[in-house]
């Protein structure tokens, strides 16, 4: 159990600061820009802000400079300002759909459209529900000794990817779209982010270039998993999340404890799907409508 606890804490450090998962961001971006050129660029731009996770040792810190720069108005317009070609502007336009100030992540983390009176984001609310459910299930299964792992932060992390699976169930082509976005878009994303945020600093420019080079194949692998039938996708997503933590260098390989860790994550993913199935689409539709009424509507590429 000690090794599993360490594994989950490490994985949490890598991923829990996400709002929506990559597939959900692709869903939102695709609804915002359902026709026109450079669709792959728009969709890839929508998942690119979360590559900040590769740029900081403190992804859980809401005041982390890399997180603030890529998710809040202080920095989210930098790629748009630096964009010079239609492809770059499409990447930057998609990038703007993601943010936590008024974009898709606002409804995930700050204020839910479906549950506005709570003063919390949709993912935050669902994570609390997931935690209560998993604690009850572990007790019923005689696995109460693992209850210490089912923290609000850990369930937040699991919900994000469980929601991606709900999105996949509603739009089976999302995995293919994510693969298309990462595999067939313009190669300009890395250089664009380097120019936008580096502003002539070679170290910062190199950091963004390297982060984007790692993020791209990661999204292709994840999208490929989401293309699988649901029965195969759920366990593969759990396996992917373990590998993600190891690949980012924040998770020690759980070794012999890996099957138990994957089993717990699978349980959480399935529970998340059940908890979000009825109101997720309503939340996303309201999110899309909100973004359509934002300043994004004034920007064209």
In short:
With 301 residues, this protein is mainly α. It has helices spanning 2-15, 22-32, 39-47, 65-71, 78-82, 86-96, 104-109, 122-140, 152-170, 174-184, 189-198, 202-226, 230-247, 258-276, 280-292.
Describe this protein's structure.
The protein has 301 residues and is an all-alpha fold. Helix content is 65%, strand content 0%. The chain has 15 helices and no strands. Helix 1 crosses helix 13 (230-247), helix 2 crosses helix 9 and helix 11 runs antiparallel to helix 12. The relative contact order is 0.18.
Strand percentage lies at under 5%
Structural class: mainly alpha
Task: State the end-to-end distance.
Answer: 52 Å
Average predicted confidence as pLDDT: 90
List the helices and strands and how they pair.
Layout: H1 2-15, H2 22-32, H3 39-47, H4 65-71, H5 78-82, H6 86-96, H7 104-109, H8 122-140, H9 152-170, H10 174-184, H11 189-198, H12 202-226, H13 230-247, H14 258-276, H15 280-292
Helix pairs in contact: 1-13, 2-3, 2-9, 2-10, 2-15, 3-6, 3-10, 8-9, 8-14, 9-13, 9-14, 10-12, 11-12, 12-13, 13-14
Labels describing this entry:
301 residues, globular
């Amino acid at each position: 159990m000690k090794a599993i606890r360490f594994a989950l804490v490490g994985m949490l450090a890598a991923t829990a600061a996400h709002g929506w998962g990559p597939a959900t961001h692709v869903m939102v971006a695709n609804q915002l820009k359902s026709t026109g050129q450079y669709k792959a660029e728009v969709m890839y731009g929508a998942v690119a802000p979360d590559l900040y996770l590769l740029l900081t040792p403190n992804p859980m810190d809401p005041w982390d400079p890399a997180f603030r720069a890529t998710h809040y108005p202080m920095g989210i317009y930098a790629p748009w300002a630096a964009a010079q070609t239609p492809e770059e502007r499409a990447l930057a336009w998609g990038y703007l759909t993601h943010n936590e100030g008024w974009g898709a992540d606002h409804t995930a983390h700050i204020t839910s459209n479906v549950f506005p009176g709570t003063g919390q984001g949709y993912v935050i609310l669902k994570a609390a529900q997931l935690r209560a459910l998993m604690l009850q299930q572990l007790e019923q299964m005689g696995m109460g000794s693992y209850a210490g792992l089912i923290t609000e932060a850990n369930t937040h992390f699991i919900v994000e990817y469980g929601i991606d699976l709900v999105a996949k169930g509603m739009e089976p082509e999302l995995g293919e779209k994510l693969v298309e976005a990462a595999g067939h878009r313009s190669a300009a994303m890395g250089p664009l982010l380097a120019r936008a945020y580096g502003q002539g600093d070679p170290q910062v420019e190199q950091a963004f270039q390297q982060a984007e080079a790692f993020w791209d194949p990661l999204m292709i692998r994840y999208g490929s998993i989401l293309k699988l039938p649901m029965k195969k996708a759920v366990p593969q997503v759990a396996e992917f999340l373990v590998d993600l933590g190891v690949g980012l260098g924040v998770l020690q390989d759980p070794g012999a404890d890996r099957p138990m860790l994957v089993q717990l994550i699978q349980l959480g993913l399935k529970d998340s799907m059940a908890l979000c199935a009825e109101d997720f689409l309503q939340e996303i539709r309201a999110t899309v409508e909100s973004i359509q009424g934002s300043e994004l509507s004034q920007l064209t590429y």
